[in-house]
Amino acid sequence: MFAVRAARSARLLRRAFTTGSTNGFVGAIGNTPLIHLKTLSEKTGCTILGKAEFQNPGGSVKDRAALGVVRDAEERGLLKAGGTVVEGTAGNTGIGLAHVCRARGYRCVIFMPNTQSQEKIDLLRMLGAEVYPVPAVAFENPANYNHQAREFAEKLDNAVWTNQFDNTSNARAHYETTGPEIWEQTNGQLDAFVCATGTGGTLAGTGKFLKEKSGGKTQIWLADPPGSVLTSYISSGGKLTERSGSSITEGIGQGRITDNLATFVNDIDGAFTVPDEASISMLYQLLDNEGVYLGASSALNVAAAVELAGRLGKGKTIVTMLCDGAYRYQSRLFSKKWLETKGLTSAIPEHLKKYAVLD
Ligand SMILES: Cc1ncc(COP(=O)(O)O)c(C=O)c1O
């Protein structure tokens, strides 16, 4: 009797877990919520919406790119069962790839500059990746981590260097998923999309889809951190690549037009730079007013959406990306000492300084 009952409850439990289930880790990537940012919408008279990419199973927008480049390698026959995926990355792409590789049975090898935090190295190793920290040298130097990743893959059979910056299957992943999701979630009623770029995959892929689908009506804007050349490039119609300053944001800002960005750069409606002071202030405001705990690139994106609301006028709907949570950066972003060394303490409104709880 007990055995029969146990078998029945196991069957019911299995059914409960399979009803509405996803196809493993990769099936859980994407379809993230679009969050209405109430306070900022009221303040600007626009509808400001943030795509909650921190809800991806690997914790960031880069899960989409990771799956995109791996799928592409599989489809092109470059990667077969038991193969090796190699990438040069210091951040979220590595984490996404490590997850996707475990889920698909591939070996994952990551090259990164040896200036990166031990936490990042530890996390990648915990996710089963092999990590090689190498000297932090310029791209022109053959010892740069990207070149080492490529050479490592070239020496192996059944291995691929996924090359996130110039492999356009990264942008394609956003064209096929992020763009359509946003279009559907807004019923096609969006006036503008804005975000910062690292590889450019998110902006190029999502932007291209939204531009095409809206018949050119949806404006696509690029938001840049200080130290990036893209605002200068886009604002000058491709003539200049000036840069000034540097930024505390991670994963964004670029010194060149990557192949991913090149697929869309001429169709971007405009670009502007968001100072770190505005990003850090927004990060704390989003926590206090909306209850969302975000990394600095997301805070920059929301600050950019607010700036764009001012430029486009009231009544518009503006979408941006909430790329990842603050968990990977909290020892910096919520540290009084770190904020002081970066000269950012005064950027945080007085009543929000209570959130900087770390010394
Ligand atoms: C936290 C974060 N935000 C934004 C981006 C930029 O996305 P993309 O590479 O698609 O331009 C990245 C890229 O690594 C990132 O890690």
From TrEMBL:
UniProt keyword terms in alphabetical order: Amino-acid biosynthesis, Cysteine biosynthesis, Mitochondrion, Pyridoxal phosphate, Transferase, Transit peptide
Cofactor: pyridoxal 5'-phosphate
CDD domains for this protein: CBS_like (cd01561)
GO BP annotations, alphabetical order: cysteine biosynthetic process from serine
Chemical reaction(s) catalysed: O-acetyl-L-serine + hydrogen sulfide = L-cysteine + acetate; O-succinyl-L-serine + hydrogen sulfide = L-cysteine + succinate
Record-annotated Tryptophan synthase beta chain-like PALP domain positions: 28-324
A GO CC term attached to the entry: mitochondrion
EC number(s) stated in the UniProt entry for this protein: 2.5.1.47
Main localization, broad class: mitochondrion
Cellular compartments annotated: Mitochondrion
GO molecular function: cysteine synthase activity
Key word Transit peptide present: yes
Pathway: Amino-acid biosynthesis; L-cysteine biosynthesis; L-cysteine from L-serine: step 2/2
Pfam families attached to this UniProt entry: PALP
Known role: Catalyzes the conversion of O-succinyl-L-serine into cysteine, the last step in the cysteine biosynthesis pathway. Can also use O-acetyl-L-serine.
NCBIfam families xref list: PRK10717.1
UniProt record similarity statement: Belongs to the cysteine synthase/cystathionine beta-synthase family.
Protein name (record): Cysteine synthase 1
The organism of origin for this protein: Cylindrobasidium torrendii FP15055 ss-10
